[in-house]
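Posting for a labmate who doesn't have an account.
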Amino acid sequence: MIKHIVMWTLKVEALGRSKAENAAEMKIMLEALEGKIPGLLHIEVGVDVFSATPGCDVILYSELASREALAAYQVHPEHQKCVAFVREVAASRSAVDYEI
């Protein structure tokens, strides 16, 4: 199993919306991927409510069946729709993947 964790810091404003509005939209979009991508076993998205240091606004935690499932997830059309939105609203991104 692969654990895939991504943390984003969002722009103060993007696409005519506030950081909070874009964070809420990211959460909806990413959580909607559950059940649509083979090998994606679990996904959850949190919006920072504790003022993390270093700062991040949105955190993705997901579990995938294998390295192959992670590779397929990355290029899946539904995921790519999320990527396009996130690229417009994110100021920075950090990610880590590990296998258990």
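Reply:
Got it, the structure tokens are right above this. The chain has three helices and six strands.
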